[in-house]
Write a structure and sequence with these properties.
This protein is mainly beta. It has one domain (about 10-125): Nucleic acid-binding proteins (OB fold (Dihydrolipoamide Acetyltransferase, E2P)). The protein has 1 helix and 6 strands; from the N terminus they run E-E-E-E-E-E-H. The chain has one helix at about 115-125, and strands at about 10-20, 25, 35-40, 50-55, 70-85, 90-105. It has a 5-stranded mixed β-barrel with strand order 1-3-4-6-5. A hairpin with a 6-residue loop joins strand 2 and strand 3 (about 35-40). The protein is globular, with a radius of gyration of 17 Å. The protein starts with 9 loop residues before the first strand and ends in a 9-residue tail after the last helix.
Length: about 130
C-alpha cells in the first residue's frame, strides 16, 4: 500500500497571551523581503502553556485587529525545519506552527488600530541585512 500522508490544519482555541511586533527581513540571496509576526496563544487547558504561532508574509496584516487578552481561534499548520551550524556535526530540527487564519471567538469586536508597524519599519530596515535560520 502506498504511503499517503495527509496534512490537516490544526485548530487552536485560546486567549492571546502575547503579541510580538511585526518584523521584516531581507533575504540576501534573493533580495526578497520576508515578513513575520509571532503571537502566543494560551489554550487555557489543565496543563496550558502558551503556544508560539508565526504568521508570515500575506497573513501578517490580519493580526493588526487583535490584542492581548482576546479569545481567538487560530488555524495553523505544523511544519519543521533543519538547522545546521557549520562548525558542528549535530543537526538540529525545529517545529513551527504557521498561522493561516485567526478569528475572534468571543469578547470585543476587533477594530483597526494604528500599529507600530509603519513606525518600526524604517528602524528595522537598517537591521535586515543579516540572514536568519528560519
Amino acid at each position: 500500500m502506498e504511503d499517503q500522508t495527509i496534512f490537516r490544519p490544526l485548530v487552536i482555541t485560546g486567549r492571546i497571551h502575547r503579541m510580538d511586533d511585526p518584523q521584516e527581513f531581507k533575504v540576501k540571496a534573493t533580495g526578497k523581503t520576508f515578513r513575520r509576526r509571532k503571537i502566543y496563544v494560551d489554550p487555557e487547558s489543565q496543563y496550558s502553556k502558551a503556544l508560539p504561532i508565526v504568521f508570515s508574509n500575506d497573513n501578517v496584516p490580519q493580526l493588526d485587529h487583535y490584542r492581548v487578552g482576546d479569545m481567538v481561534q487560530v488555524t495553523a499548520w505544523l511544519g519543521g525545519q533543519e538547522f545546521k551550524k557549520e562548525d558542528e556535526d549535530v543537526d538540529t530540527y525545529f517545529l513551527r506552527l504557521s498561522g493561516k487564519e485567526i478569528v475572534l471567538k468571543r469578547g470585543r469586536d476587533p477594530k483597526p488600530e494604528e500599529t507600530s508597524w509603519s513606525k518600526q519599519q524604517d528602524k528595522e530596515d537598517a537591521l535586515l541585512e543579516e540572514d536568519y535560520p528560519f
